[in-house]
Amino acid sequence: MSAERVLFVFVLIVAAGFFSLNVQRLVQYLRRGRDDHRLDHPARRLWNVLRIGIAQAKILRDPVAGPMHAGIFWGFLVLTAGTVELIVQGIVPGFTYARFLPRPVYLAYSASQDAFAALVLAAVAFAFFRRLVLHPRRLDGDKTHHGDAYFILGMIGGLMVTLLAMFAFDGAANPGALGPEKFVSRPLAALLAGVAPATAASVAHTSWWLHVLLVLFFLNYLPYSKHLHVVTSLFNVFFSNTSGPGQKGVMKAMDLEADVEQFGANDVAQLTWKNLLDGYSCTECGRCTAACPANITGKPLSPRKVVINTRQRLMESVGGLPLVQEHAATAVDERHLLDDYITEDELWACTSCRACVQECPVSIDQLEIINEMRRYLVLSESRFPEELQPAFESMERNGSPWAFSPADRGKWAEGLDIPTMAEAFAAGRRPQVLYWVGCMGSFDDRAKKTTVAFARILKACGIDFAILGQEESCHGDPARRMGNEYLYQMLARNAIETLDRYQVRTIVTACPHCFHQLGNEFPQLGGMYEVIHHSTFIERLLEEGRVPLQTEEGQALTVAYHDSCYLGRYNDVYDAPRETIRRALPIAKLVEPERSRDRGLCCGAGGGRMWMEERTGKRINAERTEELLATGADTIAVACPFCMTMMADSVKSREADARVVDIAEVVADRLAPG
Amino acid sequence: MKIAVCIKRVPDMESRFKIAANGVSIDETGLKFDISDFDAYAVEVALQINEKAGSGETTVICLGPDVVQETIRKALSMGADKGVQLKADSVPADSLAIAKALAAELKDGGYELILFGKHSLDAMTGGAGTMVAELLGLPCLTAASKLEISGSKAVARRELEGAAEMLEFPLPAVVTIDEGIARPRYPSLKGIMAAKKKPLEVKGAQLGEVRVIVEKMELPAERPPGRIIGTGPDAVPELVRLLQTEAKVL
Predict the structure, then answer these.
(1) What does the pLDDT read at residue A326?
(2) Staple A320 to which of A61, A315, A341, A345, CB 3.0 to 4.6 Å?
(3) In chain A, whose CA is at the least distance from the CA of B186?
(4) What is the pLDDT of residues A603-640, one digit of tens each?
């Protein structure tokens, strides 16, 4: 064995050994986090890896950076085959896949190396151009690591240059060796025709060394860089639940009887290992923060910062790899993720709209970290904006986050001949459908109009339904979103008891928050019901031709539909409300705001923000209303009482000439008389 | 500092009240109960005093049937150290009887400060605090909106109509607490869990003779609904007639 081969094998062993040592360390650090079972539904998880990871489905949501990244990523996948070949060559001189691959396959492989080397080089050039000239805003802020990005891009460029140089000089040294399949390196070799073959051969050999050394250095640099995502993101996508398996956006029930020192998370040790893996997987692209309604309107929250901080604090607390870490003034054990990295104000600014989660190309769950930290604040320290206390107390005392008398809950139905479950049961009937009205729908004057409109539709279609009336009580979702899991579970169990007493099976509701809570989160506590949002329910009735509509054309409205987060991003209901409007009022013109469907901007009321003052920056509902009015719409349609309040307030405050209506009102207005 | 806070369990005032079949009490079915607001302020004041001092003990005392243990636990979950239930079948309407029972418990407790809400939200007599002070021979200060402790002395602020007064008094003393003094904290789950393990002593209430009793309880008369008698000038004569004959205001 030649000295050179010995040297190469030695370098290879050292590099691989050091890398695997660092990988073991990183895995060890993850064990600091809490357990979380993430191996269920392996087929679905693999599908996520294929779709989101390999096919880059979420990366490609950005029409500029998407193809660029996909080019580099796919290039890397293809070129890795070549890298393996090159490394084996270092051990077995003259090794080539041609030895065992059928010729056409080998030619295709050979061509692919040229093609993707050129493609990656072009993508890297564009990445430099984008960062230096186009300068996208989302790459800034949160003390992101620009230097790290340039270094990595430079290395990737260097890898491609050395690869192509090796091909080209190889070609120059052995004229005629390169076939037409080497469509990039052959012309390059032709340019080098004047170079002496011996010189060319030695440059090619040097390029091989440089390339292979760069590969090994790159590999070992990753654990010290935000580009660790190269190693972790496919795993992260596999273990993530943000695109399923299971219902999206579900907060997991806490064991409140657990004998623990504290509830929720104020440091990385109370987060799950998956939350920590999220930290490894973030490459600071900023898509989450760019989509965050709080951040857009000048609040202190940045979902990207939450994830970066999680990674930094983990590395600090374990004394681990300096994975783009910052140096702190105080002692490590005196510091926590909460307060020392992430402030209360950041956490309370979140509207839980899920836009960050939706955008993350590597399926990071920023919201889960935020929610766990809110839980700590409320359950362990009772620290929250003071406006929340009356809401908590009212939920506890009155079964509604607002201080209305529970006795008035069914008042909207007076004189409308709508039975309560109690009345129906007393008369020996068992209604097929329960209309869950919700707190907004029961007490808020504007929302009550939607409630009545939907009830009129149900009656006009001859649906056998009832309400709970005074027996309805908040299911606790606002408390859960605000971190008060204790109050939530108390209220939820109480609501389940009521529903089960009437053997309820099917529930309709006009509130997306009730819809999500009853349908998706109640099963955790044993409440199993088929829950249908009124948009879907009305759309089905319309489709079946069961809604007696007027024959006149009606008003030719220009309608902009505003997507509710809990209906859209949480439950993928985008078409039903739009289709409802189209069917009920065919001459209406539906227009879409710039941010719509799964990119829709939150109204600002979710995540308990409804009960908090909005003191910093621009009001989220103003931002959203401006966007909706910019479509030229004369009508803003909503399918959520919270969105209704936010949009109506903003339209009113700017004295805009537009109406805000619920989709149920659009349909109820079109009901034939009688 | 050893502080006692006397608290009361009261129904939520947002409720729709009904008179019970006996005609002398409210019907408690469906009502939610909680610690009386002013008493919650008093608990908060006690907790803040001891937190500021870095030591001390806060005991909450509540008179009534076993359901009041829930109210005591609420105060314990806020951070009070121990609870005492003075067991009685019901809370009598006689403030002096209540005061005597409380004084018997407080007398040998070695408390340096005894706090009350300025009055309960339901009965609103405001009597128990002042009577306890009298029975124990302690200085009494009512409706404090601010309370500062310095050594064996205290300074309290009282809001008057268009003014405020600052009063100094020696400890031990009885102070009743007005609103606005401190926002009662929301118990954390940690606090709720800890409260389950805190000591709660049950003793018989030494009420003695109860001389004031409720003879009858009634709801305020319902206001008659508004009536539209017409619109425009044509309705004016009828309106004037009704204002003279029915409302008798003209």
Answers:
(1) 56
(2) A315
(3) A382
(4) 999 999 999 999 999 999 999 999 999 999 999 999 99
Comparing CA positions, the residue from A321, A480, A314, A316 lying closest to residue A395 is A480
pLDDT bracket for residue A328 (50, 70, 90): low
Same domain, A75 and A208: yes
pLDDT band at A1 (very low <50, low <70, confident <90, very high): low
Domain boundary among A356, A380, A404: A380
Among partner residues B15, B185, B191, which is closest to A405 by beta-carbon distance? Answer: B15
Cβ-based interface (< 8 Å): residues of A facing B:
256, 262-263, 378-382, 384, 386, 389, 392-393, 396-398, 403-405, 407, 485-486
Residue A217 lies in a domain: yes
The strand pairing partners of B115, in sequence order, are B5, B175
Per-residue pLDDT, A512: 98
A184 domain-assigned: yes
In chain A, the number of structural domains is 4
Given a cut of 70, whether residue A327 has pLDDT beyond it is: no
pLDDT value of position A324: 52
Place of tokens 């425009």: B232
The average confidence (pLDDT) of chain A is 95
Q: What is the per-residue pLDDT for A329?
A: 59
Pairwise pLDDT comparison (B223 vs A167), residue with the higher score: A167
Same domain, A358 and A410: no
Pair (A375, A398) in one structural domain: no
Q: For residues A119 and A117, what is the distance between their CA atoms, to the nearest angstrom? A: 5
Question: In terms of domains, do A75 and A116 share one?
Answer: yes
Residue B59 CA to residue B65 CA, distance in Å, equals 18
Q: Do A405 and B186 touch (CB under 8 A)?
A: no
Give tens-digit pLDDT for A413-432. Answer: 999 999 999 999 999 999 99
Between A and B, how many residue pairs show a Cβ–Cβ distance under 8 A?
Answer: 43
Nearest CA in chain A to B13: A405
Q: Please report residues of A whose CB lies closer than 8 A to that of B190.
A: 262-263, 379-381
Tell me, yes or no, whether A52 lies in a domain. Answer: no
For residue B183, list chain A residues with Cβ-Cβ distance below 8 A: 386, 389
* β-strands A506-509, A465-466 pairing: unpaired
CB contact under 8 A, B188 and A379: yes
| pLDDT given for residue B250 in this prediction | 79
Distance from CA of B248 to the nearest CA of A (A): 34
Those residues of chain B whose CB sits closer than 8 Å to some CB in chain A are 12, 14-16, 32, 34, 183, 185-192
Smallest Cβ–Cβ distance between B188 and the set A382, A393, A405 belongs to A382
Residue A552 within any structural domain of the chain: no
State whether A283 and A322 are in the same domain: yes
In the predicted model, residues of chain B with pLDDT beneath 50 are: none
- Judge if A496 and A583 occupy the same domain: no
Domain boundary, last residue among A380, A408, A436 = A380
User: Which residues on A lie below 8 Å from B12 (Cβ)?
Assistant: 397-398
Rounded to the nearest angstrom, the minimum Cα separation between A256 and chain B is 8
Q: Which chain B positions have a beta carbon within 8 Å of A486's beta carbon?
A: 189, 192
Measured CA to CA in angstroms, residue A457 lies from A401, A461, A541 at distances of: 28, 6, 9
Structural domain containing residue A621: 558-669
Long-range residue pairs from B122-129, CB within 8 A, at least 24 positions apart, any chain: B122/B8, B122/B10, B122/B11, B122/B13, B122/B36, B123/B93, B125/B95, B126/B176, B127/B95, B127/B96, B127/B98, B127/B99, B128/B6, B128/B95, B128/B98, B128/B99, B128/B102, B129/B6, B129/B174, B129/B175, B129/B176
User: Has residue A34 got a pLDDT over 80?
Assistant: yes
Instruction: Catalogue all structural domains in chain B, each as residue range(s) with its CATH number.
Output: 2-204 (3.40.50.620)
Q: Which residues of B touch A392 (CB under 8 A)?
A: 186
Find, in chain A, the residue whose alpha carbon is nearest to that of B191: A380
**Could you tell me if A315 and A436 lie in one domain?**
no
Enumerate residues 6+ apart whose C-beta is below 8 A from A619. Answer: A297, A604, A650
Residues A364 and A393 in one domain: no
Of A135-149, A385-399, A493-507, minimum mean pLDDT range: A135-149
